[in-house]
Amino acid sequence: MLHKIRHACAGGSSVELPAEMPEFPHYSDPVEKFRQELERVGGVFLDGRRSEELAGALGLVLKESDSTEIYWEGEELFQRHGISFTLRDPEAFAKGSLLYSFHFRHRVQFPIVLNSKPAERSDLARISLSASGARFGVAETGTVVHEVKAGRGRLLSLLPPAHLVFLSERDLLMNQAMLFLSMPPGQGSALTLVTGPSRTSDIERTLVVGVHGPEKLFVILTS
Amino acid sequence: MIKISANVQRALADETLQGNLRRAFVDTPHPRDEAVSEVPNWEELRRYARDVKAHTLSRLPEYLQSLEEKVLEQGGKVIWAETGQEAVQFILDLSHRRGVREVVKGKSMLSEEIHLNRALERAQIKPVETDLGEYVIQLAGEKPSHLVAPALHKSRKEIADLFVQKLGMAPTGDVLEIIATARKLLRHHFLTARMGITGVNFAVAETGTIVIVENEGNVGLSVSVPEIHIALMGIEKVIPRSRDLAVFLKLLIRSATGQKMTSYVNCLNGPRRSDELDGPQEFYLILVDNGRSKILADDFMRQSLSCIRCGACLDVCPVYQTIGGHAYGSTYQGPLGAMLTPLLTSVGEAPEHAFASSLCGACHEVCPVGIPIPQILLKLRERFQSERNQKAASLSLEKLAMQGWARVMCSPILYARLGRWARMLHKIFGKSGMGRLPIPLFSRWMKHRDLPALPPRSFRELYSSSQEVS
Ligand code: SF4
Q1: Minimal-distance CA residue of chain B relative to A117
Q2: Are A17 and B52 in contact (CB < 8 Å)?
Q3: Strand pairing report for A44-47 and A216-222
Q4: From the CA of A119, how many Å to the nearest CA of chain B?
Q5: pTM for the whole structure
């Protein structure tokens, strides 16, 4: 078959690759642009760059998603985004089971379920709120980039009806061109660009939010 | 052989369809215009994409090989299918080996092109379309009528009735209710199916990444829950580098739906790694030719393979807007289908497709990769005509008439004289125009054409008399 394709190509004219990428937009305030674009597609933006704000934001997400627990992919998410937590039962952690923590330092108290073992499909199907860290954000389109790699999966951000994404300000890129230029090629098995909640316009081209993926998408920006 | 003319009258007489088409194209302005006009360097992006595509097509074997290498490195497998049948056979064999009884499918026009669902059903394997529009179409036992919005020809009420009838949904006119019903039923299929089959929007040669664009999350689930993921792609879908994606995604998404980004863009690099929590254990990429290398061999027609399936040309086409997608009788419809159907098969197989266009040029104008669809259609008409001429007796009536016409047009004296005779005849028959000439020889030609009234004096006569005066 390749031979046939080679043969078909042979006589044709050869064209060079364009030398330069077209210009992509830059913004004086990328955070503001990101917020605008995310909100335009129905996502919820929360600024958690200061720690008091962060705790408040977390509380809001729980309330808005009608949840009392958040499922995490891994503990490093806490550290990376400066979310202080105390383990209520350190021994349970060693056994790899569910953990509770209280954010008493910020006077917002709620249990957080830390899921540090491979999530079962049946588990994922009944979780009401999950959270993960974004590899990148893109101001141009209000996009967060979810990277699947060691210890991470594809489903946690897709099956629950609400999903929370932590995005660190230093990972916020200006535009799509910067994203694809800086994308580490092929480390994990999947990279998903997520822009707002799941949607469809298949019925009379009417926009409806929440089909197969999450109906609610929250992004907390951390510093 | 596919005949469009046989379907047109029916489409025009179908009031529901006409109403649905009107709602889709006349009553609601397409958001594309705004999405495109806010990009200041849209034309530059188009040129870039067109050049990247032309370059890639001119070196297709290299890029396909590089793609294959990378996919293999990541633990995936690559299957080369020269025909649709070969691709289908591979999927059937694999399903049998793995004992697969149900398949969840993401939207894929290529799977329509190779009639995959029919083959699966015959082999007792249940294909479940998971894109909402495709799900509706599958329930109705129909074919998609639009590249991007497969159920565009159906109204909310028709869809609700279908759900009541086939799924036992309580009667409702509420879109949310319809979607909740589909979500619940499909969720079950996602969690039980062991094979997911999707299409491919772009495949990056330098990294072996398969890119699939979607809004609902059904593709994400189809490529994450089942143990096996099969991605079907036409050989023309490969692009050289990751960075090109930035441009192609911008063009595709804005042209297709007027969004800046879709909810999800899935970039997939093979099966799950051993240390990842989920994802398919097996990943297969099927590279399908099915007539594409034949198109590639023609330097001019090759441009048609740049198509990124955005559907923009359908939305602006006056023919498509009037007759809808089904009347084309083919997998691909609208200007794209008019161009691609005879190219993928032959002008003999689809003799009318190239003629189902007014050549107004709107498709070329919106096409994000600048495919000169009208020119390609003209070339196809030429091809069709020359094939027909070869077949027909060399002294056909039409040929005689055309030869005579050519002689008249070449001789100013003959032209002027015949013109004068025609005007004389006109005077004899009255001044109201000649309407339909009752000449039996021309009856077929005259069926859809009126002969307009002729002015008493020709332009030449007027011109020379005005010269005399001044
Ligand atoms: S021919 Fe152009 S406008 Fe039509 S679907 Fe393909 S890329 Fe889009």
Answers
A1: B277
A2: yes
A3: parallel
A4: 7
A5: 0.88
Location of structure tokens 């707002």: A196
B368 CA from centroid of ligand 1 (Å)? 7
**Residues B423, B426, B431, B433, CA torsion sign:** negative
Please report the ipTM that was assigned to this predicted complex.
Answer: 0.89
User: Phi, psi (5° rounding) for residue A174?
Assistant: -70, -50
Do A26 and A175 form a contact (C-beta atoms < 8 A)?
yes
A54 neighbors A48 (Cβ within 8 angstroms) = yes
pLDDT per residue over B277-300, tens digit each? 889 999 999 999 999 999 999 999
Rounded CA-CA distance B371/B55 in Å is 14
Residue nearest to atom 7 of ligand 1 (CA): B307
Nearest chain A residue (CA) to B46: A22
Ligand 1 atom, smallest distance to B311 CA: 5
Helix, strand and coil content of chain A, in percent to the nearest 5, comes to 30, 20, 50
Q: For ligand 1, what atom is nearest to the CA of residue B363?
A: 3
Between CA A2 and CA B64 the distance in angstroms is: 9
Identity of the residue numbered A99? L
Which residue type sits at B275?
D
Terminal CA-to-CA distance of chain A, rounded, Å?
A: 53
Tokens (6 digits) for B412: 């100013």
The residue whose C-alpha atom lies closest to atom 6 belonging to ligand 1 is: B307
Amino acid making up residue B421: W
Interatomic CA distance for residues B90 and A140, integer angstroms: 42
In chain A, the domains with their CATH numbers are 28-222 (3.40.50.10420)
CA distances to B454, B456, B457, B460, B462 from B426, rounded to whole Å, are 7, 9, 11, 18, 18
Chains A and B: how many Cβ contacts under 8 Å?
A: 271
Determine if ligand 1 sits within 6 Å of the CB of residue B36.
no
Note the pLDDT tens digit of each residue in B33-82. 999 999 999 999 999 999 999 999 999 999 999 999 999 999 999 999 99
Nearest CA in chain B to A193: B265
